[in-house]
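[INFO] parsing input record for FHA domain-containing protein
[DEBUG] input buffer:
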Amino acid sequence: MSQLIVMLDKQILKRVAVKTTSITLGRHGKCEISLPDRTISTEHARITVVRDDCFLEDLQSTNGTYVNQQLIDRHLLEDGDIVGMGKYQIVFRSEQGLAVQLKRLSLHPKLMDTGYPAWLQIMDGSKSGYIIPLRGERVVLGNQSTGQVLIESSPQGSYIMRETGTMNNYRTRTLAPGDTLRVEEVTFQFHLKDHDANSSPPPP
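[DEBUG] output buffer:
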């Protein structure tokens, strides 16, 4: 079950389990998560649960809603995301497993768009041969309980992998074409389109 950890000035105020399909956050006392401060709009944001996923939506708030310091309108929450609302920080925690993430993120190679600048190829397991396009600013695999990998694109066109282990160790490196990484029991290989004009994922 997913959980929201509400913090103010680095102090935990409360932990809220995500048990319903809709949670409203705002200054009004009738909101499921009430944040009584003038930096918060009456109804500031809403979290909507769709199957295994939680979507955060800004409700045209005065001061905006941020995820990992980026202003958002609507955002699919991933384990470890930090939501900024006024003076508050809300940490999203999820035990969503890699299998669910692969079901949502992976594509059959035949469906690959030639415009994808980079992708991960799944090397083993039930999705072997499938690809995960790296088309956004950030892709998250795994969770903080079992070990998590974040891949982020830089303005220079490189891809940075940030790896958090189960013992709170933390590693960062720039991915090069052909690099492999492992999340839980699945191995991935990194591909960069510009590295090889003929580069394309082989059929599964």
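[INFO] The domain at 2-94 is CATH 2.60.200.20 (Tumour Suppressor Smad4).
[INFO] shutting down worker
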